[in-house]
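WP5 quarterly update. Target: Lrp/AsnC family transcriptional regulator. Source organism: Lentibacillus juripiscarius. Length: 149 aa.
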Amino acid sequence: MDIDEIDKKLLEELVEDGRLSYVELSKKVDISRVAVKERIKNLKEKGVIEKFTVIINSEKAGKTVSAFFEVDVEPYHFQEIAQNLADHPNVASIYQMTGPSTLHMHVLVDNFLMLEDFINGELYSVKGITRVESSVILKRFKSRTGYKL
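Structure tokens (predicted):
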């Protein structure tokens, strides 16, 4: 899909503040409110904008431990395990990676005891998981909230 400079500017503004009104956006990109509304509608219909949401600071919301996992899974069990982990409330994101049936996962929990329980209960005890590697985040410098076009 072709995204012109106006669409790029609209997307940049929405990434910065998704609550901007059509009027506010129209002033920032110098087109009419109606044109802004139509462009945003088109970007949503074409899947460029997936949804509007809020970003929660996990640490301030009580999830003080953030960890990334590389989880190798036997191919036969891959889809089932990936879906079960995706449905877990502590899994913030999960991706299939290149390599030998590998999942990359971001987990948020309240404390290290909960992290240990997650590792033992949701990973080590699951048939089909062959390797688990974890890294705990010490400090966050930037989180993805969108990207520059």
